[in-house]
Design goal:
heterodimer; A: 259 residues; alpha/beta; Rossmann fold; six-stranded mixed sheet; five-stranded antiparallel sheet; globular; B: 336 residues; mainly alpha
Amino acid sequence: MKTMKSLLHTGNLSVGYGRKPLMRNIELDLPAGSLTALLGINGIGKSTLIRTLAGLQPPVEGGVWLDGRNVHALSATDRARSIAVVLTGRPPTGILDVETLVGLGRQPWTDRWGRSTPKDRAAVDDALERVGALHLRHRQVATCSDGECQKVLVARALAQATPVLLLDEPTAFLDLPNRAEIVRVLRSIAHGGSKAVLFSTHDLQLAVDLCDRMLLMRSGEGPWQGTPQEAIASGELGRAFHGSGVRFDPSNGTHRFVP
Amino acid sequence: MRGKGWWLVAFAVLGVLLALLGLASGTVNVPLPQVWGALFHADGGAHAVIVRQVRLPEILTAAAAGSGLAAAGLLMQTIFHNPLAGPGVLGMTGGAALGVALVMLAQPIWTMMPVPDDLLITGAALIGAIAVLLLITAADRRVGGGVTLLILGLMVGYLCTALVSVLQATSEARALKGFVLWGMGSFAGMELARLPWIMVPVSIGLLFALTMVKPLNAMLIGDDHARSMGVDVVQVRRRAIWITGLLAGTVTAFCGPIAFLGLAVPHVARAFLRSADHRLLMPGTILLGAALALGCDLIVRAAWTGAALPLNAVTSLLGVPVVLWVLLSGRRWAGR
């Protein structure tokens, strides 16, 4: 993995709102073909980082670079063709069928009326197939379960056909099999389509078992990044979530709850 | 999309049928072949004056008002992600009412101006609506839109209502009755020669609304997702506010404040089309708005009532059940 080309990277990035940084000194590399998990306690700035990487909010300091170009200086269309994002929560779609929702992802590529060409329809089919949601295509989004809805939202971002995919807590509110399913889908997207995929999560075990890389946001110091094995061996994973009631067991790489 | 396009044809046919009925019926019933003659032949026959000078302007006004208010309502509902928003939600119709109240009730120097009364009222309504529109767009630049802007619009609306009630309390009975009648709304009384004054601004507004279907669709899944797909949300919102001001301001200036049509029609259109896709929903809402306004106009003029019913009573009697239906079946129509 180390030898792969970095698609998205940050230099001396500080993220936050206004001029107050939540997290400083973020040096991050997202290589093509790899799945990265973003971990950290609540309120440490995971969502803020994702929004900044996606160009939705300006950095407090430093910059985000995509193939050598500054993400925050790109035109709206160029950015939309480079970075797709799935934000947290279930959006209020109204009455929309799955196919139409996924088709929205083609917007950066369609004409001003949003008319879809055969190529756009093929991209929608492909996206639905890759998340395993082809059978849902004519369903109303409102009638989908949380797990199905999350797959559909991932398919929407996939249809956007971008080299970079960012997701904010895509496994929240899902049961265990669905969480595993979503992360497996993200893994196959990253590996199969040589995309750089980053998602934030609180599922340590899923991150350790299924991700290529980890980005740990630590309070009081800059984030740490490396492979899950390195995170365990160096003790970083243990420290990142260390607190009253949680203890890390480096022998098998799991966290235990202590009463 | 496939197959649902037929609904648009159905809405258009419904509108044409109701328009023909509107031309034919009233205190004097004109048989349809004679309606045709009255419209398209030079001599026109016995009822040419009624059909051409009275009913044609009325049904065209109704169609323009209905489609304009419905399109404005849909714009506001999508931009603010709020199923209960309507064309008046930003206070622009309130501003129009305040302008008219100032002219009709306060009566300082207005009455001495060399302008016909009805034009004075139209002008006052337009100025009132534009004043609120400018206030809202200035605020949009500062507060950054969203719920704050919606609340601000509601506050401006309440403020206008309060000022109007003060004017009402201090005005004399005859002027008060005139204002109350204006407040009931009406599609009638438009002169044929002045028809372009409502048709042209409303047509421009509708064309602009139709050009916005793509970014409106993106905003269905939230402002941030829309931005990530390349939509300039701030610009789209500003444009939607201007179009709503143009549509609602014009309609209110000529027809008075018309309740519920703008709020209810998009929901009825969604219910038939079973889609929030604006490529279908926007033309559907425009066509259905025209048809339903023509239907309301027919009821207003229905011969069996003897006198004409207040338009706002009819739109509300039809609109309230629709809004209740939306609230009660909220999961299906209003999102989630």
